[in-house]
Amino acid sequence: xxxxxxxxxxxxPFVASAVADDIEMSPEAQVVPYDDSAFxxxxxxxxxxxxxxxxxxxxxxxxxxxxxxxLLELGRELYGSGPFTETSSLLGELNPMFSELYLYGDWRxxxxxxxxxxxxxxxVATRLNLDIDYKFTSTERVHAFVRPLDQGGNFTNCExxxxxxxxxxxNADLNADALFFEGDVGAIMAGLTGEYNSVDLPFSxxxxxxxxxxxxxxxxxxxxxxxxxxxxxxxxxxxxxxxVTFFAGLDKVSSAGVLDNDGLVADHNVNLYGATxxxxxxxxxxxxxxxxxxxxxxxxxxxxxxxxxxxxxRYGAWLSNSVRAVWNVGQSxxxxxxxxxxxVIFLVENxxxxxxxxxxxxxxxxxxxxxxxxxxxxxxxxxxxxxxxxINFETDGLTGFPKLDDTGxxxxxxxxxxxYLFSLDRQLVVEAAMVQVIEGRNEPGRxxxxxxxxxxxxxxLPLNVTWILRADAMHGWRVEDDNLAGVRLExxxxx
Length: 495
Known about the structure:
Number of strands: 23
């Protein structure tokens, strides 16, 4: 086999003598002389006693790995062994039915001291994320997500320092933050018709979360529909793999590009229509997207187009790089009112490939934003468009941990840091970041009135398969505002 892969054609001696003159082969191949030293007898173990431990050691002395179990697990187990139970043919022989009902998620509790410039707050806060998943075929399921201990971005907490010292608030909310159906047209049709087909068309509808370009372009849950054409290819364009996704949001669309009369995100009077594609080509992959945001009920002067493009690749054995742009255009406000989505932002993400490529990762991420660039859709708790630039641009979604200006409005800057994972059992991130205001481009309402700088540290330690300990600290210097500071300790239970 190795000889064949090397472009050498090997034949037995009698074959070579009989048909060497008549055999057809590619110009790169040739007949070579037979060499009996290339072959040998199979090894014999007749005189060696059987050693079961040695047999296990051949496979790296593997052992059963403990896994986190769902809080509730009915029907088929998530990590099961042995034969499956018999399925039902209610939806057809080619789309067998079974039952899997899981309740899983995590419970996060943190104690923090945060100085956001305007106020200093010390508190203990808690958050519960619950995913409810009912799967009844290999491709169809119903999924729900609830956060019962927070409401409107306010988490259940007790303050021990600050304006509400010695005050505790229970913020309960049992409303679904996601409730959607997911399936595949091809599998459903195969079950109904009893015939195999080549259709591959996954789809979903309901209150569904969507995330595109690592959450930079879209990170939101809205009521709508989405479907994809996956695993396509084009010989003409030399594309080995690409997919195209179409989506529409009809309610609960969170777009900071469309604000209501109170200046808040108008998530009940906005429709959204868009498409995105992922293309593997040129030894990397491209991501393109287009979305149209349609304001209603007096907000139609805030309609606008949102376009994005990105390319990610690895260069040599030393650099992984992503270049990304998000551009907003076409918004025309009545009475010359301030536009909310009328800018462009460029983001460049880099990580160096070291002698420990899986565990030691230096990175440098940079951005430049002009006017008011916006993500297409972004939940209020998801952070700003610069969330992925570095840990100093990211809050914790729990205690209000301080961060630098993450809007990208007439600013440029970036983050330099090191991510070290030890032996894949711990994580340490150390980072320095900055935001520079573009001179002569004052931006009303922008968090950064002047240049900002910060250093941050994050440490995570898994205590076992279900408990994770995390600590964060940051200090920020702001030229035109009060400085920032924060320190927090979080315990997280996964289930």
